[in-house]
Structure formats: structure tokens, C-alpha cells
Design brief:
seven-stranded mixed sheet; six-stranded mixed sheet
Length: about 475
């Protein structure tokens, strides 16, 4: 099928196209436009024209479009879920679940937007001389939001940018991932069918290497909301200049397991956290730091859980499915070879068929190994043995990333003590690292991101304050 971009209220083709193949079996799924810079300019210009009318609309009117789009997504969840599963090699049940979760996210965004209000500030509460001053503090949209989404959640992470931006009164230029473009366009089709005014959302497809820098540096962009790799995030920071940005980047999320932890529960949570969607998540557990006197037992329990994982076709609801491409598999293979050469103990057999990797678990991983520090974005997990809680904290904080960490212990006081010392955006106590629920704050520090997401926090990030002061 030939897919088109939504531009100024119409679905339009481009002279050049990009063919999208399934990473499962190389099935041709369709084509999407490869837009030119002139087409990008048109998308930006028409969006700017639409801004005044959209931001002047009552919030409840904007919310109605979001409610309708959510209903359409829910109606078409199986159709969109099937395409999503094929396009990014995600288990069919999880793919359909992503669409349902996205409908809920859009509804909640509409509701939260109606709770986002300004305030009155009285000057007399600060000094007597200002008792006759009143500030009317209003929330206004940033303007034109450039939303750039990743392949791994092409519907949910796209909507997490689009819906809060729209309810806040912004217009959106949406750049879906190249692998994931079809899923992203189907999401926007729901807004189109809901009747959203022309150019309030415009879509831009094309190779990031060809139009990425041009989009980010475009003078009409007022705010950039990006999810992807840390190197690209750093590049966006350089190109953005004085414009505000929100970045959701990579992670090296650790699981700290103390000797008093419930090891059976920890093992189940760690395997679920590490290997769900083949580990292709920024919030995947990517290393386990376990106290030496609990390490043998935990390694045994994790190995048992890993061996239960089903490897294969997303439409068989396998736990481990083909990675997004061969380049991703090649990178992980490099980490595996490095760990083996430096003496790590392999607890499960490493096996590869093209871009399908069987889950691999390493014990006795040392800090000179690449796998101890680099983000694999795939089904591989290292166990690092530690002698103290302080050592675990030092290793975690030594990472260039700062997204999440899990802490497993029955001592809640100790858990809070560790949480206070970790340099991450979120600490999960006795659970796996994870993104949701979507209304919770979600953030990374250091190389893991800039700004705070989560529906309410995303709306706040994509609106600005205007103060109007009156002397009575």
C-alpha cells in the first residue's frame, strides 16, 4: 500500500518514496513519502497559519477532538495492532495493547488539559507597597511543536507527544520513525477522521539523515520533543539553540539486588524487565548488581526464568522476536564476543539467526567489559557481583546515563536510602524498571534526557506562562 502524508488537511504523496519492510520476514508492507525540504517548508508554514485559530479555541473544544480520536483508535485497535506488529516485530498481543493504552493516554490528556488553568497572584502577599498589584498568570501554548518518535513504541510514544501538545493549544509537525512510519501515520489518521482542523497536525516522513537536521533547525519550530538515541539527542541540543526541548534518550538501567531480597520475585521481575520486547526499550533492565552471597542463587533463578522465554514469531506472541534490523543484532553480537573474550560466564546459549537473537545471560561480568556500560537494546543481560550497597551505587552513578534503577530489598528504609543516592530520574522499589503508568512523571538525567514527561508534566512542558499585571 502507498501511504501518504497529512499536509494542510489533505493526504499527499511525494516524488520519492521509502519502502518499508517487516523485520520479521522482509515482507514489503508499503511505501511512505520521502519528503523534500520544500515540502517540509510547506508543512511548517501551513501549521503556523493554523496556530492562531487552534490556540484560541476553548480547551473543551480541543478535548472533543481528542476524545473522538481515542474512540477511533479503540475501534481500529486490531487493524493498527497488526500493522504495528509486522512493522516493528512486536508480539501481536502487546501491539494491540499499545493501541489500547494509547487511546487511554489521549483521553487522559484531554481531561488533564481541562484541569490546566492559570492563577491570580496578589502582590500584597509579598510586600505591603504592592498590595494593589494583581498578576493574572495565564498558560499559553509554545506554538509549533516538532514531535519526533522512535520505532519501539511508534503509536504510544508518538501520541505521548502529540496529545499533550494539542490539548495545550499547540500545532504539531509529527516526524514518525522511518521503521514505524506506517503505524505513526495510522495514529494521525485517527485524528484526521475525528475532524481535527487542517494543519493542526502535519506529518513529515523521510530519512532522518536527509531531513532530520533541517527539521530540527527550522526557524518556524518553537519546541522540540524527541525520543531516541543519546547521540542524536545531543545533536538536537546543539541545533536547537535557545529553543526549549524535551528529550527522552537512552539508559543503562540497573537492578540492585541486596541479600535480604525476595530472590524469586526479583528474578521474575528482572527477566520481565530485561527481555520484554526483546530488550528494545530505554527502560529495560540492562545490568544486575547483586550481592555476592545472593549471586549464585539469583543467577540460578534468572537462568530458569530465561529458559522459559519463547523465541520466534510476534504473531505467536513470542517473548523474544526479531530485532529491528541486522545492524542492531551485529552491535549486540559485538558485546557478547567482548564479554566472552574477557572471561564472563555464559549461563544461556548464544544463538543467532539473522536479526533474531536468543536471550543470553552472563554472570561474573567485570567493569572492563563493554556490556557493563553500553546500552545493548536487545536480549542480553549481564550480572555483576558486588560486595556492598555503596559499590552498587557507585557503579550505577558511574554511568553516562541516568534513567531508572530498580532496588530489591525487604528493608524499606534501606531502599529509600539507596534511592536518595542514585543519580536517576526514577527508582523502582521491588519492581522492574518501566515507563508507565502514563500519568506518572517520566524523566532521565545526564545522558538519558532533558525535561519531564508524563501527561500532566508534558502539557506543562509544552505551555508557557504569561503574566499580565494590573494596578488596581
Amino acid at each position: 500500500m502507498k501511504y501518504k502524508n497529512l499536509l494542510n488537511g489533505e493526504w499527499k504523496e511525494s516524488e520519492k518514496e521509502i519502502t518499508i519492510y517487516s523485520p520479521i520476514n522482509d515482507e514489503k508492507l508499503g511505501t511512505v513519502p520521502a519528503m523534500t525540504r520544500e515540502e517540509v517548508d510547506y508543512a511548517m508554514e501551513t501549521a503556523k497559519i493554523a496556530l492562531d485559530k487552534w490556540k484560541s479555541m476553548a480547551v473543551v473544544e480541543r478535548a472533543n477532538y481528542l476524545y473522538k480520536a481515542a474512540e477511533i483508535l479503540e475501534r481500529d485497535k486490531e487493524i493498527i495492532g497488526e500493522i504495528l506488529a509486522k512493522e516493528v516485530s512486536k508480539g501481536i498481543k502487546a501491539a494491540i495493547g499499545e493501541v489500547t493504552r494509547t487511546a487511554d493516554l489521549i483521553r487522559y490528556s484531554a481531561e488533564e488539559g481541562m484541569r490546566t488553568v492559570g492563577e491570580i497572584v496578589e502582590g500584597g502577599s509579598f510586600e505591603a507597597a504592592s498590595k494593589n498589584k494583581i498578576a493574572l498568570v495565564r498558560k499559553e501554548p509554545m506554538g509549533l511543536v516538532l514531535a519526533i518518535a522512535p520505532f519501539n513504541y511508534p503509536v504510544n510514544l508518538s501520541a505521548s507527544k502529540i496529545a499533550p501538545a494539542l490539548i495545550g493549544g499547540n500545532v504539531v509537525i509529527f516526524k514518525p520513525p522511518t521503521q514505524g512510519s506506517i503505524s505513526g501515520l495510522l495514529l494521525v489518521k485517527a485524528f484526521y477522521e475525528a475532524g481535527i482542523p487542517e494543519s493542526v497536525i502535519n506529518t513529515v516522513t523521510g530519512k532522518g539523515s536527509e531531513i532530520g537536521d533541517y527539521l530540527i533547525g527550522h526557524p518556524l519550530v518553537d519546541f522540540i520533543n524527541f525520543t531516541g538515541s543519546t547521540p542524536v539527542g545531543k545533536r538536537i541540543g546543539e541545533l536547537a539553540g535557545m529553543r526549549p526541548i524535551m528529550l527522552e534518550l537512552g539508559g543503562k538501567d540497573g537492578a540492585i539486588v541486596l541479600d535480604d531480597a525476595d530472590l524469586e520475585k526479583a528474578a521474575k521481575d528482572i527477566v520481565s524487565g530485561a527481555f520484554s520486547y526483546s530488550g528494545q526499550r530505554c527502560t529495560a533492565i540492562k545490568r544486575v548488581l547483586v550481592m555476592e552471597n545472593a549471586a549464585d542463587r539469583l543467577a540460578e533463578l534468572i537462568t530458569e526464568e530465561v529458559k522459559k522465554l519463547k523465541v520466534g514469531d510476534p504473531f505467536d506472541n513470542a517473548d523474544i522476536t526479531p530485532l529491528i534490523d541486522n545492524r542492531a543484532a551485529d552491535f549486540i553480537e559485538g558485546l557478547v564476543i567482548d564479554a566472552e573474550e574477557k572471561g564472563a560466564k555464559q549461563l544461556t546459549e548464544y544463538k543467532r539467526e539473522r536479526n533474531l537473537l536468543w536471550p543470553v545471560l552472563f554472570d561474573h561480568v567485570t567493569l572492563d567489559m563493554r556490556i557493563a556500560w553500553e546500552e545493548p537494546f536487545g536480549p542480553v543481560l549481564p550480572l555483576i557481583r558486588i560486595k556492598s550497597m555503596e559499590e552498587a551505587i557507585e557503579i550505577c552513578n558511574g554511568s553516562e546515563y541516568g534513567l531508572q534503577t530498580s532496588v530489591f530489598t525487604k528493608d524499606i528504609v534501606k531502599a529509600f536510602d539507596i534511592a536518595g543516592k542514585l543519580e536517576v530520574g526514577t527508582v523502582q522499589i521491588n519492581n522492574k524498571t518501566q515507563r508507565g503508568p502514563d500519568n506518572f512523571p517520566f524523566l532521565g538525567i545526564k545522558g538519558s534526557g532533558v525535561g519531564v514527561q508524563g501527561i500532566k508534566y508534558s502539557i506543562q512542558s509544552m505551555t508557557k506562562v504569561k503574566s499580565i499585571v494590573i494596578d488596581l
